Amino acid sequence: MKGYQKPEYTALLTEINNALAEKTNAAVGDRIILRDAVCAYAAAEYARGTSLELVIQSVKDILGSAEQGANAATDELARQLVDWCREFHRGAYTGL
Questions:
Q1: 1: which DSSP letter?
Q2: For the chain, does the N or the C end have fewer beta carbons within 10 angstroms?
Q3: In angstroms, rounded to a whole number, what is the distance separating the alpha carbons of residues 1 and 85?
Q4: Which pLDDT value is given to residue 48?
Q5: What would the DSSP string read from start to end of 13-70?
Q6: Residue 31's CB: how many other CB atoms inside 10 A?
Q7: In a 3-state reduction of DSSP, which class is residue 95?
């Protein structure tokens, strides 16, 4: 355990913690931007009379084209984003 108390270890641990915190904050910010964009898209499609299933499929397609080799994680993300919008705007978008 003595090796873990060296200044080099402490400095490296601090650097790793800072890098992880920075990347986490950036990812959270990106996810909020993505969520807001999906909500705006869902609201616009709702106003046009688009069904929930078609909105979810459209979001999946958009995410899939943004990521090469789209997979089940992309589909799940699309569903989570639209579900979040439905929950957040429960009263406003009853058809979503």
A1: -
A2: N
A3: 49
A4: 93
A5: HHHHHHHHHHHHHHHHHHHHHHHHHHHHHHHHHHHHT--HHHHHHHHHHHHHHHSTT-
A6: 13
A7: coil
Q: How far apart are CA 79 and CA 13, in angstroms?
A: 37
What span, in angstroms and rounded, lies between the C-alpha atoms of 27 and 21?
10
Give the pLDDT confidence of 32-57 residue by residue, as tens digits. Answer: 898 899 889 988 998 999 988 898 88
One-letter amino acid of 96: L
Greatest pairwise CA separation for the chain in angstroms:
66
- Does the reported pTM lie above 0.70? no
Q: How many residues does the chain have?
A: 96
Residues 7-33: tens digit of each pLDDT: 888 888 888 888 888 988 888 888 889
Q: How many alpha carbons fall within 13 Å on the CB side of residue 65? A: 5
